[in-house]
Amino acid sequence: MIVRNYLPKDADAVREIHERYYKDEFTDSVLELPHYIHRFLIENSKGKIITAGGVRLMAEAVAITDKAFSPRERREALLLFLETSKWMTGRQGYEHLHAFVMDDGNWEAILNKYGFTPCKGKPLYLQVL
């Protein structure tokens, strides 16, 4: 097997794999989505694509809050933070803004109230450094 760069000539073959196996999971062929650091694929010895993909950037909202402030002030700050984050995310051309809830309070319910929804699939990460 070989690893090589994704080239425009690969688009039809990748689109065919997407349509055959993943059309209900991704709305577009995975390599047609924006914000990739790099796109590449794995081919067999006959030049047939086995796997295509890449490493894509995503927008993630990260915040800390001083809990010494009143709930009203924290709510007002959260709404302004979300409004600003949403604007900045859209301005950069990202379709989604992610938030990974770490606090054991009811932050997930609060974020859902303001438009966040669960991701498709379960978020996982790989430590690389």
Describe the structure in your own words.
Helix content is 31%, strand content 19%. By secondary structure, the chain is α+β, with helices and mostly antiparallel strands. The chain has two domains: 2-56, no CATH class; 59-113, no CATH class. It has a three-stranded antiparallel beta sheet with strand order 1-2-3, with no helix packed on it. A two-stranded parallel sheet has the order 4-5. Strand 4, helix 2 (71-91) and strand 5 form a beta-alpha-beta unit. The model has no long low-confidence stretch (mean pLDDT 89).
Describe, in short, the structure shown.
The protein is α+β, with helices and mostly antiparallel strands and 129 residues long.
List strands and helices in order, with pairings.
Elements: E1 2-5, H1 11-22, E2 36-43, E3 49-56, E4 59-60, H2 71-91, E5 97-98, H3 107-113
How far is the N terminus from the C terminus?
Answer: 26 Å
Question: How many structural domains?
Answer: 2
Number of strands: 5
Mean pLDDT: 89
Low-confidence stretches: none
Features:
129 residues; alpha+beta; three-stranded antiparallel beta sheet; 3 helices
